[in-house]
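In this supplementary section we document a worked example of the pipeline. Step one takes a protein sequence of length 354 as its only input; no multiple sequence alignment statistics are reported here. Step two produces a three-dimensional model, which step three serialises into structure tokens for compact storage. The input and output of this example are shown verbatim.
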Amino acid sequence: MIMKKLLLFALCALLVISMIGCSPESEKALAEETLTGVAKGHNGNITVSVTKKGDKITAVEILEENETPDIARPAFEQIPAAIVKANSTAVDAISGATVTSKAIMNAVNNALDPESYPAPEKETNNKSANKPAPVSATKVFQGFGIANNARIGPGKDNTDTQVYSINQVFANVLFDEEGKILSLYVDQLEVATPNYDGEGMPHFSGFPGQGGYNNDENHDGKIDGKTPDTEDHFISEVNSWETKRDRGENYQMGVGTWSDQMDAYQDLFVGKTVEEVEEWFAKYTSDINGRPLKPDSKNEEDLAKYEALSEEEKNMLADTVTGATMSLNDAHGNIIEAIKKSFENAVAVNLSIE
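The serialised model returned by step three reads:
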């Protein structure tokens, strides 16, 4: 009799446990749901999906983004996995992709708690959204500067004939009465001898009557003969020159196009004086190649220069290199010098309307 009572008691207990385990509240706790969140990245909005099972984050997926691929890729590869592993957005940002890293975290937070982490008011997936706020001045001065440099290179062709190139940087700048930059527009013309194998590079073979120059016509690194030694070729060659902005999408770099990178620098320098631009360049770029400092530099001097920066300065620099990594002064052109010369040449602009 006692055994029967114990068995009955055990069965009842199992039944109660089973009913609790199958209750609507329990099923709801274990149900899988997918949420969508949005946050502002460096180049626009980043949209993510967050999959939850109960209180546990099981997956984070990037749905839409407009970030610079080479810079943002580590963040897209590592941050979602880190959030899932930690079951939290309190994870470390990826060095060099701080803005994108934090945007992913914020987008996940927006998905989980939209009241505490509201989405951006409007989409910002366009370049104009990243432009600095408009500035005004009672007096305006306009300056135009050119920085020229000749380069022996890059390299030689397969017949050991030297490649030569010319670089001209043009800076058109508006300054206020205190010398602060109100608006900045920089372009550059780079022209090389036709034995350079880079496709899209404007060429100069020399003046007519000099026999032409080694020509790598199909850009395969091998010389195909000499360029025509005629006046028509001279004229057509010069007429075909395009600036780096003219070359547009055909001038791709590690981070976007040349124009994209120059636009990022222009936005950075608005509001600064030329002296402050020079100070920024001296403090935050490599003394070796004029590129923004990086935490993973293999050059000891650059690394020491980077480590001397404060955390706030390092974060600012990380944000900068998401849009611009090219040199501001090297054999390809001296952008800083062109900006400086524009200030030296500045004249007052009469904006009165009668």
